[in-house]
Structure formats: structure tokens, C-alpha cells
Amino acid sequence: MTTGTGAQARIERIITTGVLGAGRPGYPAGGVPIENNVWLLGDDDAVLVIDAAHDADAIARAVGDREALGILLTHGHEDHVNAAVETARRLDTHLYLHPADLFLWEETHGDRTPDFELAEGATFLVAGAEVATLHTPGHTPGSVCFALPALRTVFSGDTLFEGGPGATRWDYSSFPGIVESIRTRLFPLPAETVAHPGHGADTTIGAEAPALEDWLARGW
């Protein structure tokens, strides 16, 4: 787990491991091993959890005796939500998901729906930091990012990574859509804004913005 600080809040990363697509068409029989970033934002008293991947035990241990103000889900893909219900139960907190991704959520959790719907502009407050929801469709229809202007940070889920946009290989995905989301919702953020993605290393808005034309030329 790594920690960064800013304002009154601090950001903690938990790397969880699991298997994606086990027993599902289009995947190897045993699935594909994958690592996810789970993010905690808060202080010594309270936190928000961003995504709940693979390991409810690890997430609950990291939260400890702090109050969990909610679990904010960047999108409905299995590897970002498969520990969500159990984590919410252990932390006695609520789940938030954009309604356009309910069809993906249901593939993992059936008719056990999240508690609240996320929408563009929805805000949360933790440890003196305001968190704003940005609807960034493309990877999935209900993908969102969470921006923290005071900390010059954005949690970019699977929308923006070091080196480019997230995958758009599914019928419900859109490469033009994800590029438009990044261009209009993320690139207006200050260049020094750190993007904390759902997998892998951090990047910054300033590092990624100059590559937009290259992404368009390569088509992914």
C-alpha cells in the first residue's frame, strides 16, 4: 500500500489480485490473472473507498476502524465490483454506481443492486476535500472519474492510463466516446493533476494530453 498526502486528506492505494472472466465465454477456462488498484481517500477518521476489487479482507483491513463514507465505483466491470457487496457489508457502508452500468454489475451480482446512483456533478466531502463525479463514457456507458481539485488529483478508473485510454473492445464501448470523454472532462483539469487509474502506474494530465493526436491516429 502506498500513501500520498495533500490538504487534510491522504490517498492510499491497495493493490488487489484476482482472476477475470473465469468460466465465461471468450476467456481461458481458468480466467486471466489481474491486479487492480483500490483507492482510499480520507484521514484518520473517515474514508471513501474507490472501487472494490477482488479482496474484501484487504480493503477492510486497510480501512481499519475508520468510518467508511461510501464505496464509489468507477464502472461496472467484474474486476472493479466483484468484492463490492462483501466490502460494503463489512464496512457497513453504501455502494454508488452510475446506472448506465447496471447491466454489467448484474453479470456479477445479479439483482442485488447498488444503494445509490452516481450522476455527473455528484459531490462527496471527506477530510476537507470535495470529490466531484465526472461521467466519462467510452470504456463502458457508465464509466465515471472522481476529481479532487484541492488535491490536483483525479481517480480515472479504466478511462485514462499512462499511455492512453482504456480498452474499448466490447460492443457497448466506444473509442470515439472515450477520447471525447478524456478530451472534454479530463484534459481541462490542470496539467499537474495526478491521474490514479484502476490498474498500473499513475500519470498526469500534462503527460497524457500531448498524445491525443497519436491515440487518434493509432485508433486505440
Automatic annotation (TrEMBL):
Among the Pfam families in the record, one is Lactamase_B
Q: Indicate the segments forming the Metallo-beta-lactamase domain, all copies.
A: 35-199
**Top-rank lineage group of the source organism:** Bacteria
InterPro entries under this entry? MBL_Glyoxalase_II (IPR051453), Metallo-B-lactamas (IPR001279), RibonucZ/Hydroxyglut_hydro (IPR036866)
Q: Which residues form the signal peptide?
A: none
Q: Kindly provide the name given to this protein in its UniProt entry.
A: MBL fold metallo-hydrolase
Lineage, top ranks? Bacteria, Bacillati, Actinomycetota, Actinomycetes, Micrococcales
